[in-house]
Design goal:
Layout lengths: L1 H10 L6 H9 L3 E5 L9 E8 L2 E9 L8 H15 L4 E7 L3 H9 L3 E12 L2 E11 L1
Parallel strand pairs: 3-4
Antiparallel strand pairs: 1-2, 2-3, 4-6, 5-6
């Protein structure tokens, strides 16, 4: 739990709290941890919710100093395959509209923009919109 919370804090300006992360364990979300050979700790993590035939990527984080090496894309492929294997027919996520690298990664992996959540994410100066992305599985 400590390592998951620590990576969350390094990866995000507004990280999930320990209680939120702990709550993901109690509702049986699927939690993925990614490791690199030779690393003493995990370097990526993701939280996936599957309800009936819909999957929702709740969070995907990569160690900041290891971003732009394809680790997020690799984790995303695992999440999609996991969701398919669990019977999901669609997969969704929200992403900050300012997070261009993540948006491009999702689009490159086959996601499409399907909506927007106004004022969804906190910022230093207020709130920003989230893009809702989805993909048929």
């Amino acid at each position: 739990m400590d390592a998951v919370c620590e990576l969350e804090a390094r990866a995000y300006e507004f990280p999930w709290s320990r209680s939120v992360i702990s709550g993901c364990r109690s509702v049986q979300y699927r939690i993925w941890l990614g490791e690199l050979v030779g690393q003493l700790r995990h370097v990526s993590q993701a939280f996936l919710s599957i309800t009936l035939d819909e999957a929702h990527i709740l969070n995907l984080a990569v160690e900041p100093n290891l971003q732009d090496r394809g680790l997020g894309s690799q984790m995303l492929r695992y999440l999609v395959e996991d969701a398919r294997g669990q019977g999901a027919r669609q997969i969704f996520l929200e992403v900050r509209e300012s997070n261009e690298p993540a948006i491009q990664m999702y689009l490159n992996q086959g996601f499409n923009e399907i909506g927007r959540r106004r004022q969804y994410y906190p910022t230093k100066d207020g709130r920003e919109d989230a893009l809702i992305l989805g993909m048929e599985l």
